Automatic annotation (TrEMBL):
Pfam families assigned: Pribosyltran (PF00156)
Names of required cofactors: Mg(2+)
Matches recorded under CDD domains: PRTases_typeI (cd06223)
This protein's record includes keyword Lyase: no
GO cellular component, one term: cytosol
Origin species: Mucispirillum schaedleri ASF457
Keyword field: Cytoplasm, Glycosyltransferase, Magnesium, Metal-binding, Nucleotide-binding, Purine salvage, Transferase
Name the UniProt record assigns to this protein: Hypoxanthine phosphoribosyltransferase
Cited PANTHER family: HYPOXANTHINE PHOSPHORIBOSYLTRANSFERASE, HYPOXANTHINE-GUANINE PHOSPHORIBOSYLTRANSFERASE
Taxonomy, superkingdom: Bacteria
Catalytic activity: GMP + diphosphate = guanine + 5-phospho-alpha-D-ribose 1-diphosphate; IMP + diphosphate = hypoxanthine + 5-phospho-alpha-D-ribose 1-diphosphate
Entry's localization field: Cytoplasm
GO MF terms held by the record: guanine phosphoribosyltransferase activity; hypoxanthine phosphoribosyltransferase activity; magnesium ion binding; nucleotide binding
Stored NCBIfam families: HGPRTase
């Protein structure tokens, strides 16, 4: 068993998600919104978020290869599972669990524009700006967190701990 320390409680996460959903509902009111959830980490955040958004929307999922320590910022993004609905001329909300170096999300944003999206906004529940390697405009951010490895609320360590209801720092 790893040593765990709570950083953000279940209650604080729930409150934040409902505030983010209210903002999103207001900002995209007149638009045809497509929520694109980045697997696997954002499945729980996406499920909570979309249920609190009160405008019509569609949901799609995609999975991309994560960058290893040796991966250069010039490396190609590998799509392991692609969205199954068209995004041409759509307003897309890209939903992430955590923005760390920023490489994944900025590549995915470009990818969705290449697929013809009209507008792509970024939404993440957690943000670790200390580790940024590339400038990213995060349009909706839940919590800015310190540079620690975190698990819970969808985030894993070796595929475990995704089911924790709170966000914890894990000491490996
Ligand atoms: P980026 O391209 O921004 O460096 O990578 C973002 C991805 O790295 C996230 O979607 C997530 O899968 C993983 N990641 C970054 N920081 C953490 C962390 O603290 N905990 C976990 N479980 N995954 C992280």
């Amino acid at each position: 068993m790893h040593k765990m320390e709570e950083l953000i409680s279940e209650k604080d996460i729930a409150e934040k998600v409902s505030n983010m959903a209210a903002l999103i509902s207001r900002d995209f009111k007149e638009q045809d919104l497509t929520v694109v959830s980045v697997l696997k980490g954002s499945f729980i955040f996406t499920a909570d978020l979309v249920r609190s958004i009160n405008i019509p929307l569609e949901v799609a999922f995609l999975a991309a290869s994560s960058y290893g320590a040796s991966t250069q910022s010039s490396g190609e993004l590998k799509i392991r599972y692609d969205i199954d609905i068209p995004v041409e001329n759509k307003t897309v909300l890209l939903v992430e669990d955590i923005v760390d170096t920023g490489l994944t999300i900025s590549r995915l944003k470009d990818y969705l524009y290449e697929k013809g999206a009209k507008c792509v906004k970024i939404c993440t529940i957690f943000d670790k700006p200390d580790r940024r390697k590339i400038q990213v405009d995060v349009d909706y951010c839940g919590f800015v967190i310190p540079n620690e490895f975190v698990v819970g609320y969808g985030l894993d360590y070796n595929n475990k701990y995704r089911n924790l209801k709170n966000l914890c720092k894990i000491t490996i």
